[in-house]
UniProtKB/TrEMBL annotation:
Belongs to the metallo-beta-lactamase superfamily. Glyoxalase II family. Keywords: Hydrolase, Metal-binding, Zinc. The keyword 4Fe-4S does not apply. Its EC number is 3.1.2.6. Pathway: Secondary metabolite metabolism; methylglyoxal degradation; (R)-lactate from methylglyoxal: step 2/2. It catalyses: an S-(2-hydroxyacyl)glutathione + H2O = a 2-hydroxy carboxylate + glutathione + H(+). SMART domains: Lactamase_B. Residues 14-172 form the Metallo-beta-lactamase domain. This is hydroxyacylglutathione hydrolase. One of its GO terms (molecular function) is hydroxyacylglutathione hydrolase activity. It comes from Skeletonema marinoi. One of its GO terms (biological process) is methylglyoxal catabolic process to D-lactate via S-lactoyl-glutathione. Pfam families: HAGH_C, Lactamase_B.
Length: 262
């Protein structure tokens, strides 16, 4: 049996928060709890006690609830955030490879993935789940706000190095739009076409649909152009370019330019 249960909780217009509940102790971590009422309700509904906050990065729509939640929930004694990310209320700044536990059985390992912010981290939980914040989306990637294409390439390599069955839990519901760009980027990839139709059918949890989480590492390798910079079809999209980071830059630029046209 799994050591933990993951409960996604929608917030704002397209954000995802998560509750990670250690099954034995019912102690829980709240991931990016921007809507403190919704995350507390999820804890009550599942008989869990939040004692930890996991922050992927310091943008307000991920970390903006930290101080209020710490004030509202007296059992919270740990707030994690990436080194150098200046996360509100942070008590434990973490870097690559740091490990800690939720409850007694749920292990968390930190992947340091700066680029979208300078201290962005992902959390690899119980060898079965990864929480990717605004670094990896389903079939997409976050903006390279503070970093370089080389940093995003390194971040993707770390995430994609996890086992293929790992569940990927992302920071926003952007899947249908991301898949539409993926089809534009790789027009002959049949799996991406099917993925786009599936995403449209699922709809957004935020407006009464089912949503598209979790993805898996295997699915991202098949359907995420930012994860496919070493595949021929993405190389074709980029044009002559031998450098992996440069292809990451060109896919990002392609998505941004496509977004302006769409
Ligand atoms: Zn962000």
């Amino acid at each position: 049996m799994a050591n933990c249960t993951v409960i996604p909780v929608p917030a704002l217009s397209d954000n995802y928060m998560y509750l990670i509940v250690d099954n034995e102790t019912k102690q829980a971590a709240a991931v990016d709890p921007v809507d403190i009422d919704a995350i507390q309700k999820a804890a009550v509904d599942n008989g869990a006690t939040i004692n930890t906050i996991l922050t992927t990065h310091n943008h307000w729509d991920h970390s903006g609830g930290n101080l209020k939640l710490v004030k509202a929930v007296s059992s919270i004694d740990r707030v994690y955030g990436g080194i150098g990310d200046d996360v509100p209320g942070c008590t434990h700044e973490v870097g690559d490879g740091d490990t800690f536990k939720i409850g007694t059985n749920t292990t968390v390992k930190v992947l340091f993935t700066p680029c979208h912010t300078q201290g962005h981290v992902c959390y690899h939980v119980d060898d079965a789940h990864v929480f990717t914040g605004d670094t990896m989306f389903v079939s997409g990637a976050g903006n390279f706000n503070t970093g370089t294409p080389a940093q995003m390439t390194e971040a993707f390599d770390k995430i994609l190095g996890l086992p293929e069955s790992t569940n990927v839990w992302v920071g926003h519901e952007y899947t249908a739009k991301n898949c539409a760009f993926a089809c534009f980027c790789e027009p002959n990839n049949e799996e991406i076409k099917m993925r786009l139709e599936w995403a449209k059918g699922q709809g957004s949890i935020h407006s009464g649909g089912k949503g598209t989480i979790p993805s898996t590492i295997a699915m991202e390798k098949a359907c995420n152009p930012f994860a496919r910079i070493d595949h021929l079809s993405v190389m074709d999209f980029c044009g002559p370019c031998d450098d992996r980071s440069d292809r990451m830059r060109l896919v990002r630029k392609g998505k941004d330019d496509w977004g302006k046209m769409a």
